[in-house]
Amino acid sequence: xxxxxxxxxxxxxxxxxxxxxxxxxxxxxxxxxxxxxxxxxxxxxxxxxxxxxxxxxxxxxxxxxxxxxxxxxxxxxxxxxxxxxxxxxxxxxxxxxxxxxxxxxxxxxxxxxxxxxxxxxxxxxxxxxxxxxxxxxxxxxxxxxxxxxxxxxxxxxxxxxxxx
Length: 164
What we know:
single chain; mainly alpha
């Protein structure tokens, strides 16, 4: 019970920071997706069951905070949590390269899922400008933030400091 409340508190604080503070710091609407990083880290460190739950709750909060089409973030974050969770037993959890590679793949996958869902819902999707103006800068920010966030999730999951 204690860990569930910890995850809920972490996600609520993160959504508040991501929706209120990050737009003030980062320009042109491009900012790191800390929620995505948390979902990926929870999948890699705690497994697919935990990551699907975190992805669902985080996605719902992100959908509520963003005002976009409801359900897009929920579906993409759950899918990413599931895929990241599949690797949980196959990877060395304290590798410094793991969160970087995982967040690169997850950022591209998240963008692809979001754009595909928007396209299926009948929205106009322009891949070229979206890729160069939003996805690649966001990818750079996500890579910068992934190691500190991964360390935090490691500490929450295992209750100790990571070795990297």
